[in-house]
Structure formats: C-alpha cells, structure tokens
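Office hours follow-up: a student asked to see two folded examples consecutively, so here they are.
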Amino acid sequence: MMNYCRVMKQALNDGVLYKVLRRFYFRLFLYLLVDIFFIFIIIHDLFFIEPNEASPANVDAAKMFRENHEKFDEMAKRSVRKTLGL
C-alpha cells in the first residue's frame, strides 16, 4: 500500500496523471461536442427544411407551397428580407 501511494504521489508530481486525465477528458469533450452537433443537425432537418403542409396555422401558405413552390420561395425570401431590413 505504501508503495502504491508513493507511485501515485510521484505521478502527480511528474504531471503524468494530469496529462493522462487531460487527454481523456479532451477526447470525451470532443465526442460530446460531435454528438451535440449531430443532434442540432437532426433538429434542423426535422423542423427547418420544409414547412408542415398539414398545419392549419396558415392554410394559404401551405396551399401555395404545394401548388406553386417557386412563388412560395420568392414570397418567403421577400418576407425574410423585409424582416431583416435588407
């Protein structure tokens, strides 16, 4: 037991344990960051790619989206520009 404590104390003093833990937590952080990134991509794909045509919130927009997609895109771009003041 005493030998183990001495080895651990020496490892702490040399910074070996610190380097190992830092490398481990850095890899863990990268894996979590990648996971969060993919979650955001999935959310973006689910909610922001196409509008929900079945939503009763704006029946006219849903009808235009189905029947005349080019006109819908143009009106959406115009609305975004107006909102942003461009």
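And the second, which I mentioned at the end of office hours:
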Amino acid sequence: MKKTMGALASVLSWAKREGYVSINVAEGITVGTGKGDPEDRRLPYDTNDLEKLFSAEAVEARKESPANYWLPYLALFTGARAAGRVGAVTDGRPAP
C-alpha cells in the first residue's frame, strides 16, 4: 500500500507541475504502519471464545441463516475476517 500511494503521489505531483491538475490531493497523505493504539487492535480469539462460538447451542442458533451458519467456519479455516467474505456467501458467487 505504501508503495502504491507513493507512486500515486508522484504521478499527481507531476500532473500538478505540468498543469494537468490544480492540486495534488495525495500531497501530505501518509500510510499508517499498522502499529496504532494497542487499544484499537483486534485480539485473536482464545480457546474459551472458540468454544462459545462453536458450541452445539451456538451452531444450532445460527442454522436459520446460511450466512450466519457458514461465515464463522469460513473465517476459522481461512483466517479471513468474516466481514470480508460476506459478499461471497450472500450473493452465491465467489469473491474476486
């Protein structure tokens, strides 16, 4: 991401210098390092959390909705965040 933003800023800087654009909207933008406030980071689930999520009662409660049923398994086995896979499950087509 950092490399891509740097390239975009360079192109826009050139475009401003040459008069193609009046302002460089990428000027001054920085890409975070992902080492933000520890309070904002997501912690991995521990064994107790996983037991709650995949207990027989929790699985049974999610059976009404295919997305609610399958997304936790998909996230567990792929390591993907569930929110990123919702489109793939709800519209029946694989995500790009």
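Two things to take away from it. The chain is about 55% helix and 0% strand. The chain has two domains: 1-34, 42-96.
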